[in-house]
């Protein structure tokens, strides 16, 4: 497939917009998960204080265990989100740079950059879908009655 430089510039503009949107969504999800982690950590501190004053209730031990598992799961999800933020930001900058600052006279470099950005964009989409499916399956298994 031999695209013209105008088509490449149009697609790079679309990719630039897509990366910006994905970056914003991932940043929002990261912030949301981070706030959940902090909230659960505060609950865990409260439970620890109750244990320190001598409350050895099995219910309290179970709440502590659930809180720890919850924090570990959210930290894992947030690590994936942080990776998505990093990669989409790099792709965002690279696609903007390629479209706006690489001269149309340098067609070969622009083409190579375009195909590289496109391939990495497809990979980040596949990664995001994989993570979504993993989270959805976990959701289904956790909410079974």
Describe the overall structure.
This protein has 145 residues and is mainly α. The protein has one domain. It has three helices and no strands. It is elongated and about 75 Å long.
How would you summarize this macromolecular structure in one to three sentences?
With 145 residues, the protein is mainly α. Helix content is 88%, strand content 0%.
Question: Could you outline the blueprint of secondary structure elements for this entry?
Answer:
Blueprint lengths: L4 H48 L5 H44 L5 H36 L3
Summary keywords:
145 residues
Intertermini distance: 52 Å
Please count the helical segments: 3
Tell me how many strands there are: 0
Mean pLDDT: 90
Order of helices and strands: HHH
| Helix proportion | over 70%
Largest sheet properties: none
Low-confidence stretches: none
Domain tally: 1
Structural class by sheet pairing and helices: mainly alpha
Q: What radius of gyration results from the CA coordinates? A: 22 Å
From the spread of the alpha carbons, the general shape counts as: elongated
How much of the sequence is in beta strands? under 5%
């Amino acid at each position: 497939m031999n695209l013209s430089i105008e088509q490449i510039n149009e697609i790079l503009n679309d990719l630039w917009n897509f990366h910006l949107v994905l970056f914003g969504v991932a940043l929002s999800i990261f912030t949301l998960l981070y706030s959940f982690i902090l909230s659960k950590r505060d609950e865990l501190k409260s439970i620890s204080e109750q244990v320190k004053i001598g409350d050895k209730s099995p219910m309290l031990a179970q709440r502590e265990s659930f809180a720890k598992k919850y924090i570990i799961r959210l930290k894992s999800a947030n690590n994936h989100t942080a990776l998505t933020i990093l990669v989409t930001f790099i792709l965002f900058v690279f696609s903007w740079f390629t479209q706006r600052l690489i001269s149309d006279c340098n067609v070969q470099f622009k083409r190579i950059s375009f195909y590289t950005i496109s391939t990495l964009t497809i990979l980040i989409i596949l990664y995001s879908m994989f993570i979504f499916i993993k989270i959805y399956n976990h959701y289904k298994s956790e909410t079974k009655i």
